[in-house]
Structures are given as structure tokens and as C-alpha cells.
């Protein structure tokens, strides 16, 4: 996918998913997908890569990894990695055992965290992309209970997107 197709796809959808990008990507990860940026910020190393009217922001305190996708050209677009939410949900994932009783408790606690995030004006795109980052990291690291964690994270994603069983939709 080239940058123009990705940008047009991003703006055409109500839900703003940054795939094939992921939070935590490095400069080289991004240039391997989209090539060299049209412009960069003046800092060395740069804190911003610019492609068309999209800015990709890198966090200096986190080894210059992607944490924000921004544009104000056509419509305001702000998709940001939420480290506090990520860490809270990751902590729940690591409390998981193979017990259904524990699973239900952890699912409910995650649902509460996501609902609270929403009530404090958190955006659906930020939450979804943050939780998707957790899902992908879980898949990459593997190990015992990976499949159970994947199911738990998928259920939270379902609630955020509106595909739910007996739970209310978060957004």
C-alpha cells in the first residue's frame, strides 16, 4: 500500500485504524512501508515524519517510537497511543489463568477500564489502536496462555467496535 492509498483509506472511514502502521514502530519500520518522508522536523533525530498532510510523531523518551498520528489539513485527525490504558490492560492479561471464572472477572475489569477511558473523553480510535497494539505484542511474544490472552483482548476489541454478546457496547 502506498502512502496516498493509506491516507485516503484512513480519512474515508469513520473508524480510524492506522494499520499497516503500529504504535511503537521505528523510523526504519515506517520507511520500509512508505519510503522516505516528504519532510521531517528539524530535531536530530527527528520527532516528526510528514507524509502528504499526515504527521507521524515519535516519542523521544521511548527510543523514538511512533506514538501519534496527526493531521489538521482536511479534518482534524489525532490518534495517539495511550500508555496508561495499555499498561492497565496488559496487567490484567498477565493475571489470566486457564480458569473461566478468572477470565470473566478480568474481562469485566477491562471493560470497566475502557468504559472509564471513554467517559473521560478518550477517543475510540486511540483506545482501539492501543488495545490492538497489546493484541499484536501478545501474539509476537507468545508463551503460555497466549491464546487465552488473545481471546480476552479480542473480546475487549469486540466491545469497542460494537460486536458484542451480552455486554453493552463501549462506543
> What is the H/E string?
HHEEEEEHHHH
**Tally of contiguous helical segments:** 6
- Read across the widest sheet, the strand sequence of neighbours is 1-2-3-4-5
* Total individual domains: 2
Strand content: 5-15%
Largest sheet: 5 strands, antiparallel
What class, by secondary structure content? alpha+beta
The portion of residues assigned to helices is 40-55%
List keywords for this structure.
171 residues; 49% helix
Break the fold down into its secondary structure elements and pairings.
Elements lengths: L2 H10 L14 H8 L4 E2 L7 E4 L2 E6 L5 E7 L5 E4 L2 H11 L6 H20 L4 H18 L4 H16 L10
Antiparallel strand pairs: 1-2, 2-3, 3-4, 4-5
Task: Write structural notes for this entry.
- This protein is of the alpha+beta class.
- It folds into 2 domains: 3-80, no CATH class; 83-161, no CATH class.
- It contains 6 helices and 5 strands, in the order H-H-E-E-E-E-E-H-H-H-H.
- The protein has helices at residues 3-12, 27-34, 83-93, 100-119, 124-141, 146-161; strands at residues 39-40, 48-51, 54-59, 65-71, 77-80.
- The chain has a 5-stranded antiparallel β-sheet with strand order 1-2-3-4-5, covered by helices on one side.
- Helix 3 (83-93) packs antiparallel against helix 4.
- The mean pLDDT is 89.
Amino acid at each position: 500500500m502506498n502512502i496516498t492509498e493509506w491516507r485516503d483509506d484512513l480519512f474515508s472511514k469513520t473508524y480510524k485504524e492506522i494499520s499497516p502502521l503500529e504504535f511503537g514502530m521505528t523510523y526504519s519500520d515506517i520507511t520500509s512501508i512508505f519510503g522516505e518522508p516528504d519532510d521531517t522536523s528539524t530535531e536530530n533525530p527527528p520527532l516528526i515524519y510528514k507524509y502528504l498532510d499526515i504527521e507521524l510523531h515519535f516519542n523521544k523518551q521511548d527510543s523514538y517510537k511512533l506514538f501519534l498520528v496527526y493531521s489538521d489539513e482536511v479534518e482534524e485527525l489525532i490518534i495517539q497511543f495511550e500508555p496508561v490504558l495499555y499498561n492497565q490492560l496488559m496487567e490484567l492479561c498477565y493475571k489470566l489463568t486457564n480458569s473461566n471464572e478468572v477470565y470473566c472477572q478480568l474481562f469485566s475489569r477491562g471493560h470497566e477500564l475502557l468504559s472509564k477511558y471513554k467517559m473521560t473523553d478518550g477517543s475510540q480510535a486511540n483506545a482501539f489502536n492501543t488495545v490492538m497494539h497489546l493484541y499484536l505484542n501478545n501474539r509476537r511474544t507468545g508463551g503460555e496462555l497466549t491464546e487465552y490472552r488473545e481471546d480476552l483482548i479480542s473480546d475487549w476489541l469486540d466491545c469497542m467496535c460494537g460486536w458484542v454478546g451480552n455486554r453493552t457496547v463501549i462506543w
